[in-house]
Amino acid sequence: MNTKILVSACLMGHAVRYNASSKTLLSESLTRWRDEGRLVVHCPELAAGLTTPRLPAEIVGFDGDAVLDGNAAIVESDGRDVTPHYQLAAWLALDAARSAGCRFALLTDGSPTCGSETLYNGQFIGQRKPGSGVASALLRRHGIEVFSEAQIDLLQARLNEEEQ
Q1: What does the pLDDT profile of the chain (164 residues) look like in tens digits?
Q2: Coil vs helix vs strand at 147
Q3: CB 76 within 8 A of CB 19
Q4: Which residues sit opposite 36 in a β-bridge?
Q5: Alpha carbon distance 113, 134 (integer Å)
Q6: Beta pairing partners, 42
Q7: Pairing of strands 145-148, 102-107
Q8: Residue 112 vs residues 50, 121, 130: alpha-carbon distances, Å
Q9: Nearest to residue 52, comparing CAs of 115, 10, 113?
Q10: Which of 90, 92, 99, 100 lies closest to 140, judged by CA?
Q11: Predicted model pTM
């Protein structure tokens, strides 16, 4: 049986990002994994009932782990606290991954939900900082390895290790 990978819907060409765009990732590996039936396509934010388009949201405070621990918030650009929506999104991503038996996740970096290496700094000025989004943090807490779209070669190497 092929190892399953939870993948951000926007990376697969779905226009689900906050600005109703996609972030389509063109990759031979991704095409092969899709053809092998490995991919579980999921948008945590849409699953949690957020609309497209929606206001941009950023983590104010540290990162997704801090949000999960109640020490940071996720706010929209108008200042509205939307932390509960994004916490739900994280739990729904975990549920989707567990239900499908995913060992890995390939998620969109920079997102307050899916970011795995960087996040926007919470000031809505387009600057990034190191850190993970709330879904990435929760998935990692539950043993699912998370990779950004820039780490597809590393994910391929981990798949090879896992299946040998």
Answers
A1: 789 999 999 999 999 999 999 999 999 999 999 999 999 999 999 999 999 999 999 999 999 999 999 999 999 999 999 999 999 999 999 999 999 999 999 999 999 999 999 999 999 999 999 999 999 999 999 999 999 999 999 999 999 999 98
A2: strand
A3: no
A4: none
A5: 5
A6: 8
A7: parallel
A8: 13, 10, 12
A9: 10
A10: 90
A11: 0.97
The per-residue pLDDT for 29 is 95
SS3 of residue 6 by DSSP: strand
Q: Please name every residue paired with 39 in a beta bridge, in sequence order, or none if there are none.
A: 5
What is the distance between the alpha carbons of residues 124 and 76, in angstroms, rounded to a whole number? 9
Closest CA to 82 of 72, 96, 94, 69: 72
**What secondary structure does DSSP assign to 93-135, as a single string?**
HHHHHHHHTEEEEEE-TB-TTT-SSEEE-SSSSS-EEE---HH
Q: State which H helix or E strand residue 88 sits in.
A: helix 83-100
Query: Which of 132, 90, 93 minimizes the C-alpha distance to 110?
Result: 132
Q: What are phi and psi of 157, to 5 degrees?
A: -65, -40
